[in-house]
Amino acid sequence: MELTFYIAAAVAILSTIMVITRYNIIHALLYLVVSFLAVAVVFFTLGAPFMAALEIIIYAGAIVVLIIFVIMMLNLTQEDVQREKEWLKPSVWVGPAILSAVLLAELVYIVAAGTPPQTEAVVAVDARLVGLSLFGPYILGVQLCGILLTAGIVGAYHLGRQKKKVIHRFLQERSAAA
Amino acid sequence: MENYIWLIPALPFLGSLLLILFGTRLSRALVAILGVGSVGFSALITILLGLQFLSEKPAFYQQEVWQWFSVAGFNPSIAFHLDALSIVFIFVITFVGFLIHLYSTAYMADDADFSRFFACMNLFVGSMLMLVMADNLLLLYLGWEGVGLCSYLLIGFWYKEPANGYAARKAFIITRVGDTAMAIGLFILFQTFGTLNIQAILTQAPEVWSVGAQMAVLVGLLLLGGAVGKSGQLPLQTWLPDAMAGPTPVSALIHAATMVTAGVYLIARMYVIFELAPLAQTMVAVIGAVTLLLAGFSALTQYDLKRVLAYSTISQIGYMFLALGVGAWSAGIFHFMIHAFFKALLFLCAGAIILALHHEQDMRKMGGLRKSMPVVFWTFLIGAASLAALPIITSGFYSKDQILWYTLAGPNGNIWLYLAGLFGAFITSVYTFRMVFMTFYGAPKTHLDHPPGKLITIPLVILAILSLVGGFIELPHNFAHLALFSDLMAPVLPGITANELLAANEWLFQVLAAVVSLGGVYVAYLFYQKSPGMLHSLERSSLAMKLHRFWFSGWGFDALYDNLLVRPYVFLANINKRDIIDSFYTGLARMAEGFHVMFSQTQSGVLRNYVAGIVVGAIMILTISLLL
Amino acid sequence: MSVSTMEAALLLAGVLFMLGLISVLIRRNIIFMLISVEIMLNAAGLAFIVAGSKWVQPDGQVMFIFILTMAAAEVSVGLALILQIYHQLKTLDSDAANFMKG
After folding, report:
1. pLDDT tens across A73-115, in order?
2. In this predicted complex, what is the ipTM?
3. NADH:quinone oxidoreductase/Mrp antiporter transmembrane domain: which residues (chain B) (predicted)?
4. Cis preceding linkage at B58, omega within 30
């Protein structure tokens, strides 16, 4: 089980690195799916099989598909990949990389400075318990999530609508006459 | 009746409030009814209250309306204290004020700002009532400042003329000098007694201070400073002649009923302090004597009808101060009342003349009005006779004679003060009848187009009757011996006894006073009626002309203050034109502006920079929490 | 160095989060930025799962479901915004949308 975890973790990190270094969005998205799948395996090893399923269905499924739809609508070409290459120069990414490395070092330090390591058996928390607490003490959170999703739907609909070009009616008439 | 005391000042305030809020939307008739009616009703209540007071003879009426505020043991209330002194004052204020209001409806009939005028007049009367009815000095001070404000508003009523605005500012600033002194006096009183209640102070003062105590003298002088500022006495008298810039009814109100008599009231009200401070009281007498002479000489030389009256007011208030200063308290208040009648009368007559002659105020361009304006002539003559104190028939004689008599024969009497008063009486009758002869006799010089109507003449006649008979309530000891007024005042103000030795010969001094005033009339007649050549020969001598110019300018006080105070101040202000202290604050503003420019640079619109900012912030917070 | 699975998983969450962060910082393409935000959200969810697993409580998984919901809503609105930007500016360069700079 532990070996599975480490392999999945390695795959997740590697595939994520591949995601952030790709010039082609579609390639990046494929690596992203791999990354999500690896994380799902990690969930499984941590005793959360239901969450692993959700990760695959929603992240690797729904969200990535949504992004791909949008990319298809944007109709990107080889030129965009070329421009992506120009944007991603070492001078651009060295600074942020160092910054993030510092942050990571601090996080690692915090984790290492915590309780001394002790090996303990992974106990699965099954979906039934999750469901009970979701619709028990967390019922308010569920309702808030419902509101959030509604807002998301309305917002996306409103923003995604193709607005008619606003031209003054006299100008339109003139162009029609011409 | 005493439950309605609060209505007396409340009605004018209400009238003023209504006129301020809705004045421009009301018709002129309604404005007049509101403005005159509010003061009229207060006068009615005052008269009813006065009759009740005379029949019941209580020591005082007291009414507390509500507690003003309460801070650290200081609990002034909006409370009214009415004793004989205040009742005389509110009677004069409301009654004479009512007549002046009535007169104003005709005088101001053509003015565009009819409602503003009545709003200010009502406020003026209300503030003055507040001043004289207050039972504590803080409320008195509120009325005191309210009067100052209203004088500013009304003197500068025709504000489109810059000179009027200047006169208004001058009145406001000069009286402010006195007010500051008075405020300091109030601070000392509060620190000493822990209260500003007038009656409490008056009863406690003799226990705390001995006669001549340093603090008592200091407080007395500070209060005197306030009184001098409001009453236009030396050295703060310069604003009063310029206050003539306002409409004539305003001058009548300022000079007869409100404002300038506030100083007299203050001194009479706080008489215990002045009795404990002989130095301050002597100062009152000296200031009164000097002022009455200076103002008398200046009045001799003026050509503007209203300025003559203004200087005569200064001079007459000087008499009141003289009376208060020698301890003849009741005589001073008596003279105040009589003076209110005849000075209001004279101003209203002057207003009628000025209105009839197209706002012409120069006496040299008047003349011969005796025939064309008989009512005004006779009433003016009565007022002038009262001012000049013609013996027996005028009330002015009785009040002024009483002052002169006690100045000489009273316990604090002084021969020099008496002589000054006597000489002042002579000058008074000279300038008064100079005014009469120049205005009403001789050949007409300006066409008269606007004969006074009923609304103007009725107040004149009422005031003329009062000026004649008002004096008969207080007659000298050796002449019918009637002392209604001083008996009325006796519970409030201490009486005065004359020197035994002189008292036997009182008639001699009365004859002297009568002769002096008649002599003044004769001199005026000689110079201005019988043989004007004498005047012209006098005008040819250079010394006389120099004196004339000096007196005409009011003894050069304006120039003196200009050179002593105004010019150095303007000079210093010019040096500090860019305001050194202010630059510190503008510096702060500049700094804020600089930071604004700096930080708005960070709003670059580049999303990644914002994220980088968040990351740097997170790193800093984490680092700090790790280090601590 | 002996670390338990829990700590290793926590470190994995940290590393994934950092990778997402770097990507947000270095990418100008607005779609890449959105993807990076998804990576970061996923990493945060992982941390919650680890915590829940550590204490054998369902709360961590409940939180993950909430994060999942939020991510779905966010990505839908975010993509709609991207479409708008692309239509308005004809580019996916996030730096181009700087009309409100100070």
Report:
1. 887 788 888 888 888 888 878 888 888 888 888 888 877 776 6
2. 0.90
3. 134-428
4. no
